[in-house]
Specification:
mainly alpha, minor pseudopilin epsh fold, 2 domains, about 65% helix, binds fe (ii) ion
């Protein structure tokens, strides 16, 4: 009997472990402070209800909708980046609500000091002239928004800081939003965020939020956002030919990495053609430099050679080396790692 009970417990533990390994069950993030710490700027009841009821409801609904589907394994960012592919509107609403509120809690801190980084401060000066003018623009956006939604400070695909707004629980990383980018500040502009204390006084609410913004955290988010996968993905969306090439590279390269060269062998012609389309496409300004142009030429050459090797039925070993080389060239175009690390180390050194 004891053995049976122990076996059952072990089975539950193993199942829970497997479940947590292979599913992305979303959970309510902890606040950085207690609910009452945000008072008097935001009252304790509003904070508690907003966190434990509103935010939790988005998470519960999202988990319930995705449970048992293949999408349960999907990363939240990936869901949002490709939200147009989801027919179920509740996923857009609840995944957005979860992402948006998580950012909101992260950037609010009682007794916050103005510990803004030099990198963010310089970018604000470049794009808004001063922090005060950024504040005015965000305040105007909060006051003028009709209905429920969010006001954002985002990094656009061109690397520029911009103030934008979205309705309901949409956000700027979704592929259905007009002005896309990675948000570093998100201001909840729903009545549940302010009505209890501020009633219809949106300006009073905004002034309270502004005093709570943790500029150290925003600075950190700014640095991490540049070169992040989300940022690169949004940039890639502005260059359709790059996106198409990325899809075929991803499909064939990851299979090859796992010892399966058949995907590459069957798609080598498309691989070659897409590299030609890419080479001849209009390069968006944010990518258009000498390094990218050289890499595009190299990538086309490598893709042509790879197709020839496939036609000649070369060995898996030869093909693997070729696709690894092409993959490295492809990442020169995206410029992910080097750019990000440079900024990150600069920030940490401060
Ligand atoms: Fe909210």
């Amino acid at each position: 009997m004891k053995t049976t009970t122990t076996g059952a417990i072990c089975s539950v533990i193993v199942n829970l472990f497997i479940f947590s390994m292979f599913s992305q069950v979303q959970t309510l993030p902890k606040l950085r402070n207690t609910y009452s710490d945000y008072a008097p700027l935001i009252d304790s009841t509003t904070m508690k209800t907003h966190h434990q009821v509103n935010h939790k409801s988005y998470i519960d609904c999202l988990n319930k909708t995705l449970q048992g589907t293949k999408k349960m394994d999907e990363n939240l960012n990936d869901i949002l980046l490709n939200i147009s592919y989801y027919k179920n509107k509740s996923i857009r609403y609840n995944a957005g609500g979860h992402y948006n509120h998580s950012l909101y809690w992260d950037i609010l801190k009682p007794n916050s000091s103005s510990n803004i980084s030099e990198a963010l401060s310089n970018q604000i000066t470049k794009d808004f002239i001063s922090l005060d003018l950024l504040k005015k623009e965000m305040k105007r956006a909060v006051k003028s928004q009709i209905g429920s939604g969010w006001v954002w400070l985002i990094i656009s695909p061109k690397g520029k800081l911009m103030v934008t707004s979205t309705q309901n629980e949409d956000n700027p990383i979704m592929d259905v939003v007009k002005e896309r980018g990675v948000p570093v500040i998100g201001i909840d502009n729903w009545e549940h965020a302010y009505y209890l204390k501020h009633k219809q006084n949106k300006e009073g609410y905004f002034n309270s939020i502004w005093k709570l913004i943790d500029w150290g955290m925003v600075s950190e988010k700014f640095i991490k956002a540049i070169g992040s996968d989300v940022f690169e993905s949004i940039k890639t969306d502005n260059w359709p030919e790059l996106k198409v090439y990325k899809d075929i590279m991803s499909h064939t390269y990851h299979a090859a990495e796992n010892g399966n060269l058949n995907a590459l062998r069957s798609l080598s012609k498309e691989f070659m053609l897409y590299s030609i389309y890419l080479r001849n496409s209009k390069i968006p300004n944010e990518f258009n430099d000498e390094k990218t142009i050289k890499a595009l030429i190299k990538l086309q050459k490598q893709s042509l050679e790879m197709h020839e090797l496939c036609l000649n039925n070369e060995s898996d070993k030869v093909l693997l080396k070729k696709i690894v080389d092409a993959h490295n060239t492809f990442h020169l175009i995206q410029g992910v790692c080097i750019h990000h690390d440079e900024h990150y180390h600069h920030f940490n050194a401060r």
